[in-house]
Specification:
Elements (H helix, E strand, L loop, with lengths): L2 H12 L6 H8 L15 H13 L8 H28 L7 H8 L14 H10 L23 H4 L5 H7 L2 E11 L2 E4 L5 E4 L4 E3 L5 E5 L5 E3 H5 L13 H11 L4 E12 L1 H10 L10 H11 L6 H23 L27 E3 L2 E3 L9 E3 L2 E4 L6 E4 L2 E3 L9 E3 L4 E7 L18 E7 L4 E7 L11 E2 L4 E4 L11 E6 L7 E2 L16 H11 L4 E2 L2 E3 L9 E2 L3 E2 L4 H6 L15 E3 H25 L7 H14 L5 H8 L3 H6 L13 H17 L7
Antiparallel strand pairs: 1-5, 1-6, 1-7, 2-3, 4-5, 8-9, 10-13, 11-12, 13-20, 14-19, 15-16, 15-18, 16-17, 17-20, 20-21, 22-23, 23-26, 24-25
Helix pairs in contact: 3-4, 5-13, 11-13, 14-17, 16-17, 17-20
């Protein structure tokens, strides 16, 4: 990749938490939703006009803005036009209600931006680099989509994975399938005293003079892929026994024979879509998801996974996809700021504190780091003897004392994806061990990045592959295994898995704020308005007041914080009203509040930067955080601030009337909150005294 494209993709990566910018821009930041237009009436120009400002804001810091903007718009147009033309074709055939959210959640699941759309093969090359494979994340047969007939039997081509969108959309449709038991007519005496042969009640007579009765087999649809198996030996590892199940059911109910009838008319069959992903080997072949199966294999300590074990992995992936769909479909909420882009300063500095604490059996070193001294920066460095140059794919951190003395911590929550632990110190081959990296831990994070921790002390690694680690958790101790002459930590951030995708860690780390946290004052300020909700002992109780949605603790709404709650062991799912009155641990909910609050502060800073507003004081950031926490946006603030500055006029002309839900039961409380927020912004008054 060129340096410019590398930079573009690095910026893209900073803009996501767990979902791609395509999804963020489509679902979280604009009013454009599936229900807002018919697929067959999709208009790219209108769609782009509503989304392009957000899409193109990513290009502001690139060296070639025009190139970046052209690349983004070209990729967006190619992908979305094909998606909605395909969905529109099914719509015209009477198949309504196909869920574009489902397709997008599948395609963009855990994938870095820029590796989906096939732009003359370049994205395939980039994807191959980050996965160390020759695979592609997305296939496009480049057929003229206007000429494509969705009723055509192209199952043989789709079984080879020739076109991702065609395959996934067609997997969401099916055919009405009916199983009948066949029997002879029964002899019945009529009211006139005569004998007649008739079909029993609930049956219908066939053209051959027999009777058929509709049987229940628990599945009313035949998936597209199941119908394809009528003439294909297999489809992504699937085989079909639907007809034999019908035969078994008919025999079980003592029918002489059976009739299995499949309609030719297409129908929506979303349940068959999830069946396909769960039971086929489609997900197994997605290169960037293979680590999931590999981690499962390592835990089984066997040579290969059984089909049941593979289904367990796929089931978990499908569960997470469904949760994403729920999030996208609820993104019109005023809390959608949870999914806005995040600041580049999300990670802890990787050096732990001297002090530690034990939480749930794990050691944490989350206080101030022992050292933040960078002894080698990202980029080109000269070897110790001055004879040659080599590239440093990360940073080296020094002043760490003796080997095995300084804690190394996870910079963010993630899953341990790789470990190398056999390297020794000071041996003849020590500098070459693991290609110079020495003992190493690699962690894959939910934002798609992988962090690398190297030069680790022998026998100091405390985690195993597949472990989920939390931010600040001790994973090892610093040493001097590998290509180093001093005790140090080599730290990398990669947008993929290979060193070729490494980016400058200092774009993600803030040396002046190595442990970014939400301020205690803003937490107390918010508590005045959000409250802590009802408590019972050491637990918060979920409350569901009239006109509100299920909420717990400091205004943590269940529906819009599913992932944050799950991070700390609280699993919730729709319908969320089922949790009304239930208890959640206070310690866990308070941690969720900290995570959510920090993300809102990050969102505020990023939004201000995009609008060229800088140098605001911390109390002003806090005031805006409260505003965004409550409303989900900072609509109108940049212009109001440019007009009135930090004056009372900002309050009277903008803030005091912003989003107060006039006429509702909430208006009085919201007005009181708006006034307090603006006083905090203008006068640094948190109103916490007394």
């Amino acid at each position: 990749m060129t340096t410019d494209t590398n930079k573009i993709n690095r910026i893209f990566k900073k803009m996501i938490l767990t979902i791609s910018i395509f999804l963020i821009s489509f679902f979280a930041l604009t009013p454009v939703k599936a229900a807002a237009f018919k697929y067959s009436e999709f208009d790219w120009d209108k769609f782009a006009e509503k989304n392009k400002n957000y899409w193109l804001s990513t290009c502001e810091t690139t060296d070639n803005v025009t190139k970046c903007e052209d690349m983004i718009l070209s990729q967006q147009k190619k992908f979305y036009t094909k998606l909605y033309k395909l969905l529109g074709k099914y719509e015209k055939k009477g198949v309504v209600g196909l869920n574009d959210n489902v397709i997008l959640a599948t395609i963009f699941f855990e994938i870095p931006l820029g590796y989906v759309v096939d732009d003359d093969g370049k994205n395939k090359d980039d994807y191959a680099k980050i996965t160390n494979s020759s695979a592609s994340s997305y296939n496009n047969d480049n057929e003229n989509i206007d000429e494509y007939d969705v009723t055509t039997d192209d199952s043989e081509a789709l079984s080879r994975g020739t076109d991702t969108l065609k395959l996934l959309i067609k997997s969401m449709v099916g055919y009405r399938a009916s199983c009948y038991g066949i029997s002879d007519k029964e002899s019945t005496v009529t009211s006139a005293g005569t004998t007649e042969n008739v079909c029993p009640s609930g049956s219908e007579e066939t053209s051959s003079g027999q009777c058929r009765t509709l049987l229940s087999t628990g599945d009313r649809h035949l998936g597209f892929w199941e119908k394809a198996l009528e003439h294909l030996p297999s489809f992504f590892g699937l085989t079909s026994d639907r007809a034999s199940k019908c035969a078994s059911e008919a025999a079980k109910q003592n029918y002489g024979s059976y009739d299995y009838v499949v309609s030719d008319a297409l129908e929506k069959a979303e349940d068959k879509y999830w069946d396909f992903l769960t039971n086929s080997n489609y997900l197994d072949g997605i290169e960037h998801l293979k680590y999931r199966f590999e981690n499962k294999l390592k835990k089984t300590k066997k040579d290969s996974l059984t089909e049941e074990e593979k289904i367990e992995v796929r089931t978990q992936i499908v569960k997470e996809m469904k949760e994403l769909v729920k999030i996208y479909e609820s993104s019109d909420s005023m809390y959608n700021a949870n999914y806005e882009e995040v600041t580049e300063y999300n990670y802890f500095f990787p050096i732990g504190s001297v002090e530690t604490e034990e939480i749930d059996g794990h050691i944490y070193a989350k206080k101030d780091p022992k050292s933040v001294t960078i002894i080698s920066k990202f980029g080109e460095i000269r070897s110790t003897d001055g004879s040659k140059t080599k590239k440093n794919f990360g940073i080296d951190i020094g002043e760490l004392g003796n080997s095995g003395e300084t804690y190394v911590i996870a910079v963010e929550r993630g899953t341990v994806s790789s470990i190398k632990s056999e390297c020794k110190e000071n041996g003849e081959d020590s500098k070459k061990c693991n290609s110079g990296y020495g003992n190493t831990v690699m962690i894959k994070h939910t934002d798609g990045n992988t962090t690398v921790y190297s030069f680790l002390s022998p026998d100091s690694i405390l985690v195993e592959e597949g472990d989920v680690v939390e931010q600040g958790q001790v994973i090892a101790k610093a040493g001097k295994t590998g290509d180093t002459d001093t005790v140090s930590l080599h730290f990398e951030i990669r947008t993929g898995t290979s060193a070729s995708t490494a980016v400058d860690p200092l774009d993600y780390l803030d040396l002046s704020n190595p442990r970014p946290t939400a301020s205690t004052k803003i937490a107390a300020f918010l508590e005045k308005f959000e409250g802590t909700g009802p408590m019972r002992g050491d637990n918060y109780v979920v409350y569901c007041y009239s006109g509100d949605i299920p909420t717990v603790g400091h205004g943590i709404t269940l529906q819009y914080n599913v992932e944050a709650l799950a991070q700390f062991g609280i699993t919730v799912s729709s319908p969320y009203t089922q949790y009304c009155g239930k208890e959640f641990p206070k310690a866990a909910v308070d941690k969720v509040f900290g995570v959510v609050l920090k993300r809102f502060q990050d969102n505020v800073r990023n939004s201000l930067a995009k609008n060229s507003i800088s140098n605001l004081a911390n109390h002003q950031i806090d005031a805006l955080t409260s505003l965004m926490y409550n409303t989900g946006n900072l609509d109108g603030f940049p212009n109001a601030y440019r007009s009135y500055g930090s004056t009372e006029s900002l309050c009277t002309s903008y803030w005091n009337d912003h989003y107060v839900m006039k006429g509702s039961q909430f208006e009085k409380g919201l007005r009181r909150r708006r006034k307090a927020e603006c006083q905090l912004f203008v006068n640094a008054d948190y109103g916490l005294e007394g």
